[in-house]
Write a structure and sequence with these properties.
It is built from eight helices and four strands. With about 220 residues, it is mainly alpha-helical. The chain has a single domain, classed as Arc Repressor Mutant, subunit A. The strands form two sheets. It has a two-stranded parallel sheet with strand order 1-4. A two-stranded antiparallel ribbon has the order 2-3.
């Protein structure tokens, strides 16, 4: 398999409603999701996404972990289908990601699915918060034009589940306008800069929902 080729997505269980792009790796198995919910493994995936391919020694130097630790976590990522080794000459073979797009989704028919996805999301959110805090702390030293086009925003509204699903799809579609650019410099327009997007859409469990039976009471 070359870097440009993408795996054929495996059929998803009946209890999974999300269907991502054909190039995206959609994981619904709680065991595989729990295997990914580890800070070092997420760091390794991030590095391999950017580097394209790297050996355990190169990964260790990049993320500040020992070679032994990286070797172990790389093997675990490979065991659960997130990365694979590149077949080339040499004693230490490099690793590459199976797909640059990955989604962990709930399987309503799999015990422990919600817990696994929640644990994975919790680690992901903490990593994103750390990244955003680091950016904010450096803001005064960054070019004004970079800060001027950035935004930290929030919004609160009432919507039906169908409207929320459509809103979620709209957000995904907006981001897909830039698919491939992170990994392929030849797709960068003149004057483009690296951008990070992090968004959360959730139903607020602490506020009452609007229901017809409440109006009739």
């Amino acid at each position: 398999m070359t870097n440009e080729e993408l795996p054929t997505p495996a059929p998803l269980p009946d209890g999974v409603s999300y269907r991502g792009p054909s190039s995206e790796q959609v994981i619904s198995d709680p065991v595989r999701i729990r295997a990914l919910a580890h800070p070092v493994r997420l760091e390794l995936l991030d590095y391999l996404d950017d580097a394209g391919r790297a050996t355990a020694t190169e990964c260790a130097a990049a993320i500040g972990e020992s070679v032994a630790s990286c070797s172990y976590h790389l093997r675990m990522l490979a065991k659960h289908g997130y990365i694979e080794q590149v077949d080339q000459a040499g004693r230490e073979k490099p690793w590459k990601v199976v797909s640059h797009g990955r989604s962990s989704v709930i399987d309503r028919n799999a015990p422990g699915s919600v817990h696994a996805v929640s644990a994975m999301a919790s680690i992901f959110v903490h990593r994103q918060v750390d990244r955003i805090q680091s950016w904010l702390q450096r803001a005064s030293q960054l070019p004004v034009e970079d800060i001027d086009v950035s935004t930290v925003t929030s919004s609160s509204f009432y919507a039906t589940h169908d409207e929320i699903r459509q809103f979620r799809e709209d957000l995904w579609e907006l981001a897909r306008r830039f698919d491939g650019r992170w990994q392929h410099p030849e797709l960068w327009p003149e004057g483009s800069v690296p951008v990070q997007l992090f968004s959360v859409v959730n139903i607020d469990p602490d506020r009452p929902a609007h229901r017809a039976d409440r109006e009739d009471s």
